[in-house]
Amino acid sequence: MHRSTVICSLTIAALFSCVAGVATLEKRQASDSGIPTVDDVTNPVCKPFVAIRDAIMGDIFHAGGRCNDNARAAIRLSFHDAGTFSLSLEAAGEDNGGADGSFLVDPDEVLRTENNGMQNIVALLKPLPERFNVSAGDVLHLAGTLAVLACPGGPVVNTYVGRGPVKNVNPHNLIPDTHDTIPNIIDRFNDMGISVREAMALIGSHTCARQRFVDQAFANDTFDTTPEIWDIRFYSETKRNESDPGVFRLPSDLGFAQNSLTKDDYNRFVGSLSTQEDWAREYADAHEKMSLLGQDVKTLTDCTEIMPETIHLRDITVTSSGGAVDPAVDPGKLEAEIQRTRSIWLQ
Ligand code: HEM
Ligand SMILES: *[C@@H]1O[C@H](CO)[C@@H](O)[C@H](O)[C@H]1NC(C)=O
Ligand SMILES: *[C@@H]1O[C@H](CO)[C@@H](O)[C@H](O)[C@H]1NC(C)=O
Ligand SMILES: *[C@@H]1O[C@H](CO)[C@@H](O)[C@H](O)[C@H]1NC(C)=O
C-alpha cells in the first residue's frame, strides 16, 4: 500500500512542501488505513469505482468492517447471479445466465423462491448502476467481492469491471437446492464450469451465512458457530455434525462432507491456521472465476487495486491458540484491526 511520508527539513524551500503536506493530510490518513484513495489508484478505468466501493462498504454494509446481513446477502447474490451460467445451454445457443447483474434489472428474478431473502440487498444495489453510470454486473459483483472482505478473515478476490449490459433474464431451475442429491449438485457445478474442488472451496462461504427459509422454525440460524468470522469452522463443525444451539446444518453441506464425490476436496479445508490460509487463497480463485462466468475476461479491466486489505485471522487469534485447529478470535485484536483497516467506513 502507498504510504506517503512528509519529511520537513528546516530549509525555507522545504517549508512549501510542509504546507502542501498539511493539505494532503486527509488523503494520507485514508492511505494509512490501507484503503486506496482515488489518487492511489493508477488505472483510470478503476478510479470511478472507488466511489462505488465506498457507497457499498459505507452505506450498504454500514459498519464497513463487519459481516452483517447485507454483506452475507451480497455474497449469496453473487452466486445466484453467476450460478445460472450453463455450458450446455450456451452450447445449444440458448440464454445461459452468467455474472451479468440481471438481478438488478429484471424485477422478477428476486421473487423466485430460490432467491428468497435477497430482496433487501437487491433493492439497495439497484440504484447504483444508474447513479454511477456502470453496468449492473459490475455493481453486483463488486458488492460480492467487497462483502467477502467485510467479513473478517475474508480474502481479496480479484475484482474486474467492464461487464456490458445484462445479457438475459436468468434461466430457471439452475441454482442447486439443498435437498438435491450430491451427484446432481456436482453435475450442476460442472455445467457452470466449476470443478468439485472449486465448489468445495466456494461452499465455505457458508461460514458467514444464515438460513431463513429451509426451516422457518429455525429462522436466522447460522451454518457455523462464528457467523461474523470468515473461518474454516464451517468445514469441521459440519463434518462432525455437531448440534450447536442456533446452528443449522444444510442437508447438502452434510452431504458434501460425506459423499465419495466430494469428501476428499471438502476435507482439505478441515484443519488449522495454515489451512485457513490455503482455503482463503482457493476461495478467492474460485470466487473470481464465479464472478466471470459468461463474461470474456479479455474485455474486462482488473480493478483489484481499489480493494481494501484483508484482515488476516493469523493476526487476530488468541495468542495461545496459534496453529491450533479452529483458532479462536481475540475480540480486542479484531476490533483494533477493524478500526485500523476499515476506518473511513465506520460510523
Ligand atoms: C450446493 C450449493 C449451494 C446450496 C444448496 C446452498 C444453499 C443455501 C441455502 C439453503 C441458504 C439459506 C437461504 C435461506 O433460507 O435464507 C444459503 C445461504 C447462503 N449461501 Fe448458499 N448454497 C450453495 C452454494 C453457495 C455458494 C457457492 C455461495 C457463495 C460463494 C453461497 C453463499 C451463501 C451465503 C453467503 C448465504 C447466507 C445468506 C444470508 O445470510 O442472507 N452458497 N445457501
Ligand atoms: C456513461 O458511460 C458511457 C460509457 O460506458 C459513456 O459513453 C456515457 O457518455 C456515460 N454517460 C454519462 C451521462 O456520463
Ligand atoms: C431474523 O433476523 C431479522 C433481522 O436480520 C429479524 O428482523 C427477524 O425478526 C429475525 N427472526 C427471528 C425469528 O429471529
Ligand atoms: C446430523 O445430526 C442429526 C441430529 O442432530 C441427525 O438427525 C442427522 O441424521 C445427522 N446427519 C448426518 C448426515 O449425520
TrEMBL record:
Pfam families: peroxidase (PF00141). Binds 2 calcium ions per subunit. One of its GO terms (molecular function) is manganese peroxidase activity. Its EC number is 1.11.1.-. Its cofactor is Ca(2+). It is an enzyme of class 1 (oxidoreductase). Keywords: Calcium, Glycoprotein, Heme, Iron, Metal-binding, Oxidoreductase, Peroxidase, Secreted, Signal. InterPro entries: Ccp1-like, Haem_peroxidase, Haem_peroxidase_sf, Ligninase, Peroxidases_AS. The keyword Cytoplasm does not apply. Residues 1-21 form the signal peptide. Residues 71-307 form the Plant heme peroxidase family profile domain. The keyword Oxidoreductase applies. Belongs to the peroxidase family. Ligninase subfamily. This is Peroxidase. It comes from Marasmiellus scandens.
